[in-house]
């Protein structure tokens, strides 16, 4: 048997095993939970069109309502060049979909009284005391000022602390790009020292700016628990929820399931990506990034989201209290900061996730109070407490949301509601 046939057989066997994993919570009659089977069937051709047009190598989508999975389907390839088909056990780099998991870990400590939301960040992370704030330019020189307000832990959750990510060409972001933060050479114990060298983008609490705030929360979890972030995740989230395929790297025996990551080249073509952000995910990282370091499967992430939709519990395993989850999914931004980005009309921000505050102003179908986030490689999830509904879509393409597949998928999922 040649290698190609061996690969195809292995993929087929893997897909069969994966199909059985969600069997106990699937329903073959979506009408029982108020959804139309015929309308859900519109998802597959819509996703296939992105594959046929060579925009995406493949997608994996899931819809659940009232605790039942009514749709989970892969189209295309997890690795187009190797002709490895998309399967339900495909492992994805979820990047910023790590943030809600880090937030949950921190909230388990908040529930124990280990910190308060209005506590100064420097109370637990003294390296971040006495930070300076960018106040403009004087010719070629950067003008800095002292902070006028205390930076709080809650501001780390809501991206209002003043940190940044280095995504733009602003003076502060250029310093981020030149720093050692994303070099892959920095040691865990030196991370906050590097952060402290950089000025804040704005005064704490005055603006929303997507940032390394959740990575700093990850360090807070480590300081308060005495464990590495990965160990804390494993003990308090992954093991209880049986999220066996989620972690900061892919073990050798599972690496054939890791999806290829793609990028848009200068010609507008979707091609395999080289030099992946945060490394290749094939070995344990020096720094376990609470802001974007995890890999996961659609089944594992469904389990996590269903836990949140259930108010902190899944299949008898309680991770958070009901009121804690309600606090997490509540908008915490003042009206003056909504929408937090021009493209996020109708959206406020909770703890590590956006929240719909105006369903009429939102860009997709949904409900007031639905919440979720996305990852840099175009992974996406949304939880709707009003409709008792979860949607998750997975692919691996940078930049995020270059194509509209997430919005198309969400709208098609919602148009399938009949009751």
TrEMBL record:
Coiled coil: none annotated. Residues 1-23 form the signal peptide. One of its GO terms (molecular function) is hydrolase activity. It comes from the Bacteria. Residues 46-408 form the Beta-lactamase-related domain. Gene3D superfamilies: DD-peptidase/beta-lactamase superfamily. InterPro entries: Beta-lactam-related, Beta-lactam/transpept-like, Diverse_Enzym_Activities. Pfam families: Beta-lactamase (PF00144). Keywords: Hydrolase, Signal. The keyword Ribonucleoprotein does not apply. The keyword Cytoplasm does not apply. This is Serine hydrolase. It comes from Paraglaciecola chathamensis.
């Amino acid at each position: 048997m040649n290698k190609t046939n061996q690969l195809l057989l292995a993929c087929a066997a893997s897909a069969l095993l994966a199909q059985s994993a969600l069997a106990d919570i699937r329903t073959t009659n979506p009408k029982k939970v108020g959804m139309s089977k015929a309308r859900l069937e519109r998802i597959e051709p819509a996703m296939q069109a992105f594959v046929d047009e060579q925009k995406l190598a493949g997608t994996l989508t899931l819809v659940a309502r009232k605790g039942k999975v009514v749709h989970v389907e892969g189209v295309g390839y997890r690795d187009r060049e190797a002709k490895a088909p998309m399967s339900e056990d495909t492992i994805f780099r979820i990047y910023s979909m790590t943030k809600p998991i880090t937030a949950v870990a921190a909230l388990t400590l908040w529930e124990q009284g280990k910190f308060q939301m209005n506590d100064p960040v420097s109370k637990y992370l003294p390296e971040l005391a006495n930070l300076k704030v960018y106040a403009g330019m004087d010719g070629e020189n950067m003008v800095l000022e002292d902070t006028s307000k205390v930076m709080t832990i809650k501001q780390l959750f809501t991206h209002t602390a003043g940190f940044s990510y280095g995504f733009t060409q602003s003076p502060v972001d250029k310093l981020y790009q030149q720093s050692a933060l994303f070099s892959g050479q920095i040691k865990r114990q030196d991370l906050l020292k590097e952060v402290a060298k950089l000025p804040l983008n704005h005064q704490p609490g005055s603006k929303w700016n997507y940032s390394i705030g959740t990575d700093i929360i990850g360090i807070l979890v480590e300081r308060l628990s005495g464990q590495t972030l990965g160990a804390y995740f494993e003990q308090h989230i992954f093991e209880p929820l049986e999220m066996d395929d989620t972690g900061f790297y892919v073990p050798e025996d599972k690496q054939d399931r890791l999806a290829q990551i793609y990028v848009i080249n200068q010609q507008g073509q979707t091609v395999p990506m080289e030099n992946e952000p945060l490394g290749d995910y094939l070995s344990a990282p020096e720094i376990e990034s609470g802001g974007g370091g995890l890999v996961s499967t659609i089944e594992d992430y469904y389990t996590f989201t269903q836990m949140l939709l259930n108010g902190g519990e899944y299949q008898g395993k309680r991770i958070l209290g009901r009121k804690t989850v309600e606090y997490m999914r509540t908008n915490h931004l003042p009206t003056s900061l909504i929408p937090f980005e021009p493209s996020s009309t109708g959206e406020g921000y909770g703890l590590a996730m956006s929240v719909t505050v105006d369903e009429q102003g939102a860009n997709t179908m949904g409900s007031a109070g639905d919440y979720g986030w996305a990852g840099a490689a175009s992974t996406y999830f949304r939880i709707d407490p009003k409709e008792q509904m979860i949607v998750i879509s997975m692919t691996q393409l940078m930049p995020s949301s270059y194509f509209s597949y997430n919005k198309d998928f969400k709208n098609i999922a919602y148009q399938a509601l009949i009751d």
